[in-house]
Amino acid sequence: MKKRQKIRKTGILVSFLLFPITIYYLSPVLIIMGAKQGVIVGSFIIFSLLFLVGLFLGRAFCGWVCPGAGIQEISSSIRNKSVRKGNWIKYLIWVPWMGIIVIFTVRAGGLSKVDPFFHIPKGISITQPTDHMVFYFFLLLIILPAYVVGKRSFCHHICWMAPFMVIARKIRNRFKWPSLRLEAEAEKCVQCKICDKKCPMSLGVEEMVQQGSMENTECILCGSCVDNCPEGVIEYRFRGFG
Description:
The mean pLDDT is about 95. The chain has a two-stranded parallel ribbon with strand order 1-2. A two-stranded antiparallel ribbon has the order 3-4. The protein is globular, with a radius of gyration of 19 Å. The chain contains 13 helices and 4 strands. By secondary structure, it is mainly α. It folds into 2 domains: about 170 residues, no CATH class; about 60 residues, Alpha-Beta Plaits, CATH 3.30.70.
């Protein structure tokens, strides 16, 4: 395993171990509760930052930081089944959820207060027995699809955070701002498909290389294809198109 992948996997593992502390900062429920009272809560701030960061780093958060990534990649070592369909399903969750947030915000007369620790005593998420029930519910929500459906199914089908970064990436692509991206030299590719096998998001990386475009809304810029390609076909770049 290349050093970069060791660093990445260590990072998402540490992030998972910190999940009992950070889970409410990623909560899709607390943001609704805050909207009812006109409060900008911790998850509102984090989701906004994910959008802003997504303009320049795409879904790198999913590959390098997300606490759900660590446990899902561990799960994939037990059930290594590819997932290439149903990416649209998460929008059936995201769109109504965003609608609810907007409605409650309007009813509250707008957002008039900022409280990053809203319903998070002392800044730590899991402090009460009932909090453990919430934690294990979300843990099951992340792990179970990985076993039943396949690798990173939660990322493909359920995650309410991914659309913020996907939309940001589409905006970035529209205006062609410099950002972190993957580039490939198709003429060097020997079609060994190791990149396909190593991709944690089950993407058809070799096909993307042959087509001359490494852009994919499900790409998490983890660099697995970069670090496992024996011919050095794929590389990171930080720049605009063209």
